[in-house]
Amino acid sequence: MTENNPLHALLAACHWIGEKGWCPATGGNMSVREGSEYCLITESGKDKGQLTENDFLRVEIATNHVPSGRTPSAETGLHTLMYNLYPQVGAVLHTHSVNSTVLSRIERSAGLVLQGYEMQKSLAGQRSHLDKVIIPIFDNSQDIPALAAEIAQWAQSHPLHYGFLIRGHGLTCWGKNVAEARRHLEGLEFLFQCELQLRLLEAK
Ligand SMILES: CSC[C@@H](O)[C@@H](O)C(=O)COP(=O)(O)O
Ligand SMILES: [Zn+2]
């Protein structure tokens, strides 16, 4: 994996995500920032574990315009939202793992609290298992512009870090580059699995 070529790094991340089983049946979408105006995002409907360079489309961050005229991810608006809100975001990964799907339904509140786990330190800036990491959960919607507007509204008073969950749908996470987004994805997936197992055992 080389950050000298962000698209190659993203492609490698997509193949790794496919091997992990976190994007079954064409679920998920991934993007990388290309300067201040554009990002490259997966074409809609592709198997994200089997992508090639040709499966990424250039999208204008401010308008969601696709110069090629091809069809980008149905969830492009959530990627461009993150690039618009935070200039430091360099890559966005959206996955559909079983753990993120189930946990976001079991947790009925607007946020999943992660506390007591050493692996919280896989998230940028986290220094102790004693701190609380809150991953917001937004209700799923097929109206992506409306969902993006809801998340943007939330972010005005609660700056977003690492990722958010969409209930019954999956995780959207990001980083300053592909390597950091990948680390956040792996760290969060580990934490989700721990939290789900803990809740199952404690319920017995
Ligand atoms: C397998 S259907 C999943 C889609 O509805 C969507 O949630 C998704 O993540 C993939 O959509 P895509 O348009 O391929 O980026
Ligand atoms: Zn999705």
CATH class label: Alpha Beta
| CATH superfamily grouping | Class II aldolase/adducin N-terminal domain
Q: How many angstroms separate the termini?
A: 43 Å
CATH topology: L-fuculose-1-phosphate Aldolase
**CATH architecture classification:** 3-Layer(aba) Sandwich
Cα-based radius of gyration, to the nearest Å: 16 Å
How many helices does DSSP assign? 5
Instruction: Give the strand content.
Output: 15-25%
Largest sheet: 8 strands, mixed
Q: List low-pLDDT spans.
A: none
Number of strands: 8
Number of domains: 1
Cofactor: Zn(2+)
Family: Belongs to the aldolase class II family. MtnB subfamily.
GO biological process, one term: L-methionine salvage from methylthioadenosine
EC number: 4.2.1.109
Question: What is this structure's SSE topology?
Answer:
Layout: H1 6-20, E1 29-34, E2 38-42, E3 56-60, H2 76-85, E4 91-95, H3 98-106, E5 111-114, E6 133-138, H4 144-157, E7 163-166, E8 170-175, H5 178-202
Parallel strand pairs: 6-7
Antiparallel strand pairs: 1-2, 1-4, 2-3, 4-8, 5-6, 7-8
The protein binds 5-S-methyl-1-O-phosphono-5-thio-D-ribulose and zinc ion.
